[in-house]
Amino acid sequence: MKKALLIAVAMLIAPIAAIAADYKEGVHYTVINQGPATAKPEIAEFFSFYCPHCFNFAKTEVPKIKANKPEGVVFKQHHVEFIGKEMGIEMSRAFAVAHQLKVDAKIEHALFSAIHDKKQHFTNRDDIRKLFIANGVDGKDFDAAANSFMVSAQMSQMKRATENAKISGVPALVVNGKYRVETGAIKSYDELLDIAYYLTSMK
Asked: Under a CB-based contact definition with an 8 Å cutoff, are residues 39 and 203 in contact?
């Protein structure tokens, strides 16, 4: 009985191991630098508020990552500037302001919804400021944060991370600061997440 149980368990584990073994460098992921990995395992998402695929990813996949990521793995997000021309920079600023004011979830949803559901056209920082105010943020708090060193530093860090990872399309995932998951060879978002989880154990 015990032997039969062990065989059954082995048969269940084998396909999982085979799938993991099939994740190949240059096909499913790319090593973006030869330096050390991040101090703690992490999954970083690169996205843009202007990207409709990022909007869907935020609704369906980001909650899965937060709920199912391996224990001890940090999840972080970087807004990219290269979509939306000048407003791409202002959207990165908005993301950083929301983070500093600790209204990330509310503002992320509001911006995505305004752009993709309501088809609102943002033309300057004041348009974004009005959205923050409509979602309970004091205008003076927005102004102070938008012009703060902390927000400028976060924007610079996000831009540097985007350039270092050679991100050209979003949504994109980078694991441990070293491995960019490649979307060309995957068949679903589930597979994308499986690869990311697999890479978190790599140094």
From this structure: no
Give strand pairing partners of 42. Answer: 74
Helix axis angle, 139-146 relative to 86-100, nearest 10°?
110
* 95-141: pLDDT as tens digits: 999 999 999 999 999 999 999 999 999 999 999 999 999 999 999 99
Helix (H) or strand (E) holding 120: none
pLDDT at 22: 79
Q: Which of 200, 87, 186, 90 is nearest to 146 (CA)?
A: 90
Residue 167 has pLDDT above 50, yes or no: yes
Cis peptide before 171 (omega within 30 of 0): yes
Write the DSSP string, 136-171: T--HHHHHHHHTSHHHHHHHHHHHHHHHHTT--SSS
